[in-house]
Predict the structure.
Amino acid sequence: MHYTGNIYRPPFEARSLLLQVTTGCSHNRCSFCTMYRDTPFHMEPLEQIEQDLEEASLFYPNTRRVFLENGDPFVLPADRLAEIARLIHEKLPEVETIAMYASIKNIRGKSDDELRRLRELGINDLNIGVESGYDPALKYMNKDHTADEAVYELKRLKEAGMDFGLNLILGCAGSGNGEANAVSTAELVNRAQPNLIFTGTMHSEPGCPLDEDIRSGAFVENTVAEYLDETEALVSRLELEHCRYFSLHPSNIVRVDAVLPRDKTELLREIRLTRERMSAETLASRPRRFGEGAVLL
Ligand code: SF4
């Protein structure tokens, strides 16, 4: 298989065939993100994609799930995505689901008919970086959508029959704003009813605007206690029909793989127990971080 640039996938796509159809991210301007900072966006040639699928058909002929790379392949025009889906089904006839990262802007660029057509071709389980429902935080992160716009586009996806997961960043509104971020984000999530929530906490890598703001003091990160309070405020407000709550990313302070609403009481209990186990000094501190924002607990 042919891969260029940094390749990312969500942890729950570990068993999927990774097929590169784009390089980089078409947006590439989120204030906290360095994933593709030095990688210009481009589409991979169809010949290359076909060649990769030929190879996959020899080594993994029973593939059922494909994850399209890279940062936001759903930006591709519907006709091109349809052609890629057609090639996938031709070479790997057992494929049931073609998943990928997507942004709200990517959905905005597709008509209702196009969304339905793509769903019929097996495109599903989009992983969407909504990050927050709090408009000041969305603006600060340069997400290019408001909370209301996100809900509108997510409802269009739902009406087209597509399942989706939402990535959320706890602490993205900064210290002192956790409650406001939790309340607005819970409202967005409840209106959108995703199948999955994937949480992380606000962290930066050298080279992004957030990193400069943290160094200059323009952005003040949550304390550990604030992260716990914000997580509790979010979870306690979630009213979901059926949703996986996945917080195993190492940047989280409470790490669970749960199902809501089934595990809501247990999850809230886990947050409270985590707080009780920590010293006052730890709770008042900012998290100590390592690679990928991993928090040392
Ligand atoms: S967070 Fe996602 S949309 Fe934003 S720049 Fe990074 S890859 Fe692109």
Remarks:
- The chain has one domain: 11-293.
- Residues 25, 27-30, 33, 35-36, 71-72, 103, 129 surround iron/sulfur cluster (CB under 6 Å).
